[in-house]
What does this fold into?
Amino acid sequence: MTRLSEGEGFTPPSAVDFNLPPIFGDNAFTTKPIFLVFFSVILISVFFILASRKAAIVPSKLQFAGESVYGFVRNDLAKDVIGHEFMRFVPYLFTLFTFILVNNIFGIVPMLQFPTMSRVSFPYVLAIITFLVFHYVGIRKQGALKYIKEIMFMPGVPKPAYILITPLELLTFFLVRPLTLSLRLFANMFAGHLLLLVFILGGEHLLQGVIGLKLISPFAFFIGIVLTFFEFMVQCLQAYIFTLLAALYIAGALADEH
Amino acid sequence: MITLAAGEEINPLVPHTAEIIVGFIAFTLLYLVLRSKVVPMFERAFTARTEAIQGGIEKAERAQREAQAALQEYQSQLSSARGEAQVIRESARVEGAALLEQMRAKAQEEAARITAAASVAIEAERTAAVASLRNEVGALAIELANRIVGESLDDHARQSRVVDRFLDELENQSSQKR
It folds into this structure.
């Protein structure tokens, strides 16, 4: 808003636009992303509690909707990827998927219009939790020493190759995995939101320009709308990818040989 | 307004403490709610549905087995009843024949008895008739002879001797004639 009031020229949206000021007061806990996160928790909880409350054999429309999401995570993600021990991880994966999905979709919901996951802290949190979960699972399953050994000295590899493979594996398991997990989600949401901002704020700016620019402005809005649909796809996809990778990492830690 | 100084460089990769804390709390909260309230209910619905389907199939199979068993039972009962009826009919026939035989024998016996009694009675009556006839005929004949011959034959003993002799002769004649 401050930018537009400066009047002269168009300042393209940047990382600054993601640093929203507190809605009230003067502390870091009253910002829009934080409200959105809590709102998502309430939204998801209420929806799924209502949907699952009756647990009827013949589901109502609401129960069917809730069951579809739950069944997707349970069967297509947890069961297919993890195998027979999957049931232990269903609550975690289910939470992960719905939490990311809803917070992503906030990015295109009118009035809210901010993908919480474009604040890097939240993907970090999710990646840290996933990191802890899959290492914990691996250590519980195989014992700490054996688990570390399996990671460092992959079986079936000629001995000299360990010089190259061991550092790579350690890097993969303890740095690359959590980092890529969080940055993938963050970057997608950040870039997507930035893209929308460019076209919609750009369209708005064009509208305030001379008559020729005013005529171009609808195209910017049109592209903004098209990109909104595209964003919806990306948001769903990212929630799916994050959950899928978490399931894959858990499955890897559970397997005797990864 | 803390952060929004216009030209300030902001690194979007640097996390914020407040958001990290909130992220953990929110995620944990959601996890606890979903794990305790939602997942068990959905699992229950899934299990109930599976059971309902399996139960239906099992019930149908059980009903079919029961129907089969009942049919077999009826058939065996029917055949045993048929056998029994056969036995009863046979025994009734035999019994009836025996009864008939018994009654026939009894009737014959009765008839024989009646015949015998009748013949005895007839014999007795005949004897009595012969005796009385002999007396009467004798008396009549004597009377007649007296009338004819006169008093010579008054003596009773002689009379009866004469009559007896006469009758004996008469009998002999009749038996010789036969």
